[in-house]
Structures are given as C-alpha cells and as structure tokens.
C-alpha cells in the first residue's frame, strides 16, 4: 500500500482503494431530516422499542405484533426494486419498509413509527480509502464522496418521491400519524433533504478491485498482483458494485476462493 508519504513501497502501480464503490447511497429514517412516517394514527403500537442496546431492540422486535409478522432479524422484510427513470435495463432503486423507527445511533427517533428506506443501488459516485498512518492500528481515511455525480442525486430524489407516494396509499391510513412534510414538495426541496440525510448503504466494495490491467489489485484468481502467497476473498475485489445487497455475491466470492485453493476449476469438479 503506497498512499501518502508512508513507506514501505510494496506496489507503486496498483490503484489501491482509489475508486472504492460506495455500496449504495441510502436515505433512511431520521426524525425531522430523513424519511419517517409516523404512526399509528389511533394510538396503537406497531412495536415497542425500549431505550437500550441492539439486544434490547432484537427482543422487542421478536415479540412485536403489527402489520407484518416478527422479522427474521434484519428489519427489512418488505422491499421494492424499481427504476429511477424510464428506459433503464435494470432496477437501480431499492425501497425497504422497516416496521420500527430506524435511525443512526447519534440521531433521535420517534418513540413509535415505521420507516421507508430509499437506497440507490447503482451509484456512479466513487469513494476512496487511504492510509492515515504507517501504524496499522490507526483507522484509515475513508471518503465516500456521496452524490459526487449528479445522477446519484436525481436517482434518490426519484426514489424518495416513490416512497412518499407509497406512504400516502390507503394501506397505511390506519397506521399513519400524519402526512410527511415532503409530500407535494418540489425536486429542489427533496434534493436538499437527500443531501442532508444521505449515508452509506452499509455495503461498500471494490477497494481491491479485480482485473487484468496493471492497476488492478487482484487478478481473476483473487491473487494480489505481484505478491506471492496472498489472495483477497471478499467484496473489496468487486470491479463493479452488484445491484441490491452484497451478501450473496460476497459468499459466492468466498466459495470460489475455496475452490481455487483446492485446485477446483468448476462447480462440478
């Protein structure tokens, strides 16, 4: 790794983490800033989430009763894949319905509610990962560069509009506490909301991209270029981000790495 002024130089021709795939841009639920839809209108509780750690939340959700059965654990039991604009070859937006208030740890949440999370699965913006110190215990410098490409902002504005439309359907009448203030807003206002609320989708990838050129970090067999005895087998090798969540693709990469190490060349070998 050769970023900044730090030695030793191992590879000065590898594009290490210069174009990190940001793993999707996400507008989740945050009181006043992101996309909460408060409810229920008649005082019924969707789920009681106590103040406490993640284990407290897990226990509360497991015992919940509401419009959806208790989830298997990821809080995203209903999702919608759709296009941000007409004519796309494949969906680039994911809207996730989460039946509890969902926020970042440092942000306040309503006591009761549910969430629409809007994710852009095919962002054009690219982040970077660089060294802050030669000491491996020092955290690296991560710059996600959210919304650096204008298309990403337009896509999320489209996604928020779709989520707002869903939130206003009759299916939510008995649960909705009131209309979200962005209902009926123009693109400029929604774009301002997106800029303020955007965060990581939690699926960053591509900082050690695979390829056959001299700037690739690993070759098609996951071997680090020019360094014997080292392979990388995780989402960092993805040359492009996959649509929707990266878990299945990361497992596939690991399975392929296992086959390569055992000398297998195909699934049937």
From TrEMBL:
<dbReference type="InterPro" id="IPR007867">
    <property type="entry name" value="GMC_OxRtase_C"/>
</dbReference>
<protein>
    <recommendedName>
        <fullName>Glucose-methanol-choline oxidoreductase C-terminal domain-containing protein</fullName>
    </recommendedName>
</protein>
<dbReference type="Pfam" id="PF05199">
    <property type="entry name" value="GMC_oxred_C"/>
</dbReference>
<dbReference type="GO" id="GO:0016614">
    <property type="term" value="F:oxidoreductase activity, acting on CH-OH group of donors"/>
</dbReference>
<comment type="similarity">
    <text>Belongs to the GMC oxidoreductase family.</text>
</comment>
<dbReference type="GO" id="GO:0050660">
    <property type="term" value="F:flavin adenine dinucleotide binding"/>
</dbReference>
<feature type="domain" description="Glucose-methanol-choline oxidoreductase C-terminal">
    <location>
        <begin position="123"/>
        <end position="254"/>
    </location>
</feature>
<dbReference type="InterPro" id="IPR036188">
    <property type="entry name" value="FAD/NAD-bd_sf"/>
</dbReference>
<dbReference type="InterPro" id="IPR016162">
    <property type="entry name" value="Ald_DH_N"/>
</dbReference>
<dbReference type="InterPro" id="IPR012132">
    <property type="entry name" value="GMC_OxRdtase"/>
</dbReference>
């Amino acid at each position: 790794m050769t970023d900044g002024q730090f030695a030793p130089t191992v590879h000065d021709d590898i594009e290490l983490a210069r174009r990190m795939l940001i793993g999707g841009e996400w507008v989740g639920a945050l009181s006043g800033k992101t996309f909460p839809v408060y409810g229920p209108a008649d005082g019924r509780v969707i789920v009681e989430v106590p103040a406490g750690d993640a284990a407290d939340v897990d226990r509360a959700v497991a015992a919940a009763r509401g419009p959806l059965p208790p989830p298997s654990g990821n809080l995203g039991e209903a999702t919608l894949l759709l296009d941000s604009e007409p004519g796309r070859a494949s969906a680039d937006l994911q809207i996730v319905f989460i039946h509890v208030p969902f926020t970042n740890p440092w942000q306040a949440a309503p006591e009761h509610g549910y969430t629409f999370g809007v994710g852009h699965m095919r962002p054009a913006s690219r982040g970077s990962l660089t060294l802050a110190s030669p000491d491996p215990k020092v955290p690296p410098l991560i710059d996600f560069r959210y919304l650096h490409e204008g298309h990403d902002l337009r896509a999320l504005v489209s996604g928020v509009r779709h989520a707002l439309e869903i939130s206003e359907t009759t299916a939510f009448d008995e649960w909705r506490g009131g209309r979200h203030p962005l209902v009926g807003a123009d693109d400029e206002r929604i774009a301002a909301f997106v800029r303020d609320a955007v965060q990581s989708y939690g699926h960053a990838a591509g900082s050690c991209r695979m390829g056959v050129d001299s700037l690739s970090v690993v070759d098609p067999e996951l071997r680090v270029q020019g360094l014997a005895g080292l392979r990388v087998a995780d989402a960092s090798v993805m040359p492009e981000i996959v649509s929707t969540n990266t878990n299945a693709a990361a497992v596939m990469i690991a399975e392929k790495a296992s086959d390569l190490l055992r000398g297998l060349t195909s699934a049937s070998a």
